[in-house]
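FAQ
Q: What does a multi-component entry look like?
A: The components come first, one per line:
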Amino acid sequence: MTTATTGQPATVGRPPTTMDNAAPRQRLADRDSALAWIFLMPSVVYIVALVAVPFVLAIGFALSDVTAGDPSFDWVGTRNFRRAFDDPVFWRSLGNTFVFTAVSMVLIVVLGKVLANILMAKVRGKWVIRFLVLLPWTTPVSLSAIAWLWMLDSIFSPIDWLLREMGLLGSPGALFGPNSNMYWLGEPDLAMASVIAVHVWRLTPLAAVIMMAGLVAIPRDLDEAARVDGAGYWRRMFEITVPLVLPLAAVAALFGAIFTFTDMAVVDVLTNGGPNNATQTLTSWAFFRGIDGGDIGQGAAVALFLFPLLLAAAVAILRAVRRMEVR
Amino acid sequence: MSALTPPLPGVAEAARLRRTYAARHVASRVGTYTAAILAAFLCAAPFLWSMVTAFKQNRDLYNPANNPLTFSRPATPDHVTYLFTDTSFLTFAWNTLWVGVLVVAITLLLGLPAAYALARLDRPWAGWFGVAIFLVYLVPPSLLFLSLSRIVVAFGLQDSTWSLVLIYPTITIPVSIWLLIGFLKGVPRDIEEQAMVDGHSRLGAFWRAVVPLAFPGVVAVVVFAFTLTASEFIYALSFVSPTADKVISTGVPTELVRGDVFFWQSLQAATVLVAVPIAIVFNLFLDRFIAGFTQGAVKG
Amino acid sequence: MAVVEVKNLTKTYGSRPDRGGRGRAAGSVRAIDGIDLATEEGEYLVLLGPSGCGKTTLLRTVAGLETPTSGDVLIDGHVVTGLPPRARQVAMVFQSYALYPHKSVYGNIVFPLRASRMSRPDRDRRAHWAAGLLEIEHLMARKPRQLSGGERQRVALARALVREPHVFLLDEPLSNLDAKLRATARDELKRFQAEIGTTTIYVTHDQVEAMGLGDRIAVLSHGRVRQVGPPVEVYDHPADTFVATFIGSPPMNLVPRDGVLVGFRPEHLLPAAASEPDALPVRLAVDRVEYLSGDRHVYGTALGVGEQTRVVARLPATVTSPVTAGDEQEFAVSRDRLRFFAASSGARMDRVPL
Ligand SMILES: Nc1ncnc2c1ncn2[C@@H]1O[C@H](COP(=O)(O)OP(=O)(O)OP(=O)(O)O)[C@@H](O)[C@H]1O
Ligand SMILES: [Mg+2]
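Then the predicted structure of the entire assembly, as C-alpha cells:
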C-alpha cells in the first residue's frame, strides 16, 4: 500500500478520468483509494482511540457502580439512570439546560447577525472595533468568567454602582428595588439570566464571525438586482439577505448549541450551579456528581444523557442546512 | 405607458425625495457608528474595566462607596507585579503556548491529509465520513473526561502537560477537517491535475500545489485551533494538578483564587494580558477565517 | 417608454474619502469622463466598447446603483440623479442574471411586483403573461440552479419586464451563453424588444451583437463617447480611427500619407480586375492568403498609396481571380469608399484628392 503512493516518475499518470485504456485506470484508482485511506487513517485512529474508546468506556461507567473510592467495575444495569431519574435535581438540570440552550441560541443567532452587519459596515477604525468585539471569544473562558464574577459581585459590582448612581437602585421607590445590591448571582431567576447573558456575551462574536462568512458569500449583484427591482431595505433584508445567510446561521447555531451544551465553565465559575440548583445544567450536574461527589457511574449516566439530545439537535440542524442549500 | 407604472417623480417631488434620501443616508451613517461603538463597548466592557481594576489599591477596591470606574486612591502596579513575581503566570503562559503550538501541529499533520482525502479523492463514502467526523465533535468533554483520565493514566501521562497535547487534538481535529474541506474544495482541480501532468505524483501534487493554495485555510485552522486549546478548561482541570504543569485557563484561577479569597486585581491583569494578544492575532487572520467558512464548508 | 439622457456625466472611483486607504493608494480611476448621450423613444441603444471603457459604470449610474461624481441622469425629462434605483422604475438584467437562488422562477418573476405592492391576483396574471411571452411557463416551480443558461436568461428578462419599466438596462446578458445559444438568444431579444417597444440600453463588447441588435450604437473608449449613430453609419463613416479599427473584422486598413490616414475596409480592397475603372490602384505585395468560409483574406503590404503599410483584403466568394502568396498584384479601392483621418488626432476629415 505504501509503495503505491511514493509516486515514481515512471508511473506518474494523469487523473483517472483522462485515462483511456482499462488496465492503468484500475491501478490508478487503486492508488487513489489507498492514498485516501493513508490520509484518513491517522485521524481515524486518533479519534477512535481517544473519543470512541472513552465513549464506550463512559457507557460502561454509566452501567456500573464505579466510584472514586472504589474503582472496581461491577455491572449494575440501569441503576445509575434510574437513580438519576429519581433525583429532582436531575429534572431541574434538564429543564435548566433546555431554557439555557434555547434562550442562548436565539440570542446568539439574532445578536450574531446584528453584530455581523455592524462588523461588515464601512466605518473608520474598523480594525479596533473588530478587535474589541472579538475579545470575549478569544479570552479563555475561565478567565472571562472570573472577570464577570467580579462584575456581578454581590457587594462590589460596578453594575450595581452605576444603577445606584443613576438612582435606579438602592433608594426607596427605585426601579430595581430599595436594596443596595442586585445580588445578580444570588437570586434564582437573576442568576439564570446572568449566566445566560455571560454565555451569550462570550459566543456572539463567534456567531457573528461565522455569519459574516455568509454575508460575504452573497453575491453583491443580488442585492443590487433587488434594489433595481424596487425593494426597500427591510424587504431586501428579509427576502434576500436573511434567507441566504440562513444555512450559515444554522451552522452558527449548531456551534453555539455545542458550546452551550458542553461548556460548563461559565456555570461552574459564576454560580457553581446555585443558588439551590437554579442554574444547574446537565453538564455541571454530571461534573458535580462524577468528580466532586466521586460517584463516577452516576456522573457518566447523566453526561451520557446529553449525547442523544445533542445528536438529535445536530442531525436536525444539519438536515435543515442541506435542505436550505441553494447552490 | 400603461397604468401599471407609476409616473416618475416631478421636479419638486424629486427634490423632496432627494432630501429624504440624503437625510436617511446621514441617519444610517450615524446609526452605524453608534451601533459599532455600542457593540465594541458591550463586548469589551469587562476588559476595559479590568484594566482599571488591575491597578487599584485594596482599600480603594473594597469600598462599595468608591467609584469603581476611576481611581479613588493612587494607582498601584503592585498587583500586576505580584502576578509575575509571586505566581507562576509566566510558566502557565509558556505551557499554554507550547501546548497550543504542538496541538496545532498535530492537528494540521493529521487533519490536512484527512480533509484532502474527503474533499478530493472522490471516495464514495467521503460524504458519510465527513458527517461522522463532524458528529465526533458533538461528544461532550464532560462525557469523556472520566474515561479519558484513565487512558491518560494508562499512558503514564497523569499530572503532565503532555496529557493535554495528547488529548486536545480530539477536539481540534474534527473542526479543522470540517473547515479545511471547505478550503480544499475552493482550490481549482485543474491546478492539481496540472501538477500531476507536470510529473508529480498525487502526493506531490497535494504537497506542492494544493497545500500552498489552501494556505489561508491552514492559517484559519491554526488560529481557531489555538483559541480552542487555550480556552479548554475541563480536561486541563482533570488531568493536570501540579502548578508547574498547569496552563493559563486552570493555573490562573487556582493560583489566584485561594479558597474564598480572590486576588481580584491580579486576576484582572492576567485576563487582559492573555486576552489581548490572542485577540490581536485572531483579528489579523479574521478575513481568512471568514473565507474558510464560505468556501463550501456547508455546501458539503 | 421613455427617453434616457445623461448630461456631462463623470464618475471617478477611488476619490471619495470614505473608500478607505486601499483605493487611494492605487490612484483614482475616471471610469466615465464627460458623457452626453440621449436615447430616443422606444429605441434600442447599444453601448459598445473595449473592456474597461466604462460601459457597466454608465449603465449602473443610469440605474442608480452608482452616484455620479458630476453631471445628471434624466429619465423622461425628470432629473433622477441622487434618487435610489427604486424611484427610477428601470429594469436591469445583470451579466450574471442575479436570479435569487432561493426563490423559484415564479418567486423571482413576481419579486418586483411584490416590491411595488401589487395585489396577488394581478401579480399572478402579470407573471404568467411575462412567462408566456418568454415561453418559460413550464419552469415556474423550478429553482434557478435547475435551469440552463438560456432559461436563466429568459427568467431574468421576465423579471425585468413584468413591471413594464420605463427603461431596460441590459449588461452583457449574452456573454454567459455558448455561441449557438447566443445567436438564438440575440434573435429573441431583438424580436421581443420590437414587440413591447420599451427603450433599451444594451451593453456589449461584442461588435457583432452590437451591429445586429442596435437601432443605434454608441461607441465608448476610456469613459468617453467616440461616436453615436446607426450601425451602418458607424461602420461606414467612423468618426475617428478608434471607431474605424474597433468595428469591423478584420478592421479598417489605415495607410499614412502626408499627415493624413487613408482608410478603407478590407472588403473594398479588390483585385483591379474586379474593380471599377477609376478606382484608386493599390499595389499589394501578398504574404499570405486565408480561406474563411468562402471568403479569402489576403494579407500583404500596400505599396504606392502612401507609406508602405500592412493591409488586409477580404475577397468575397464571387471574386475568383487568382491570388498567390509571394506575388505583387494590382488591387484597387473604389474612390467613394475611401475615408480620411487626421494623422495627429485621428479625427475624420474631408476628402483629400489622391
Ligand atoms: N468599484 C470600482 N472601484 C474602482 N474602480 C472601478 C470600480 N468599478 C469599475 N472600476 C474601473 O472603472 C473602469 C470602467 O469599468 P467598467 O466596469 O465600467 O468597464 P466595462 O466597460 O463594463 O468593462 P467590461 O467590458 O470588461 O465589463 C475600469 O477601469 C475599472 O477598473
Ligand atoms: Mg462590464
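Q: Is there any commentary attached?
A: Sometimes. For this entry: Confidence is low (pLDDT under 50) at residues 1-30 of chain A.
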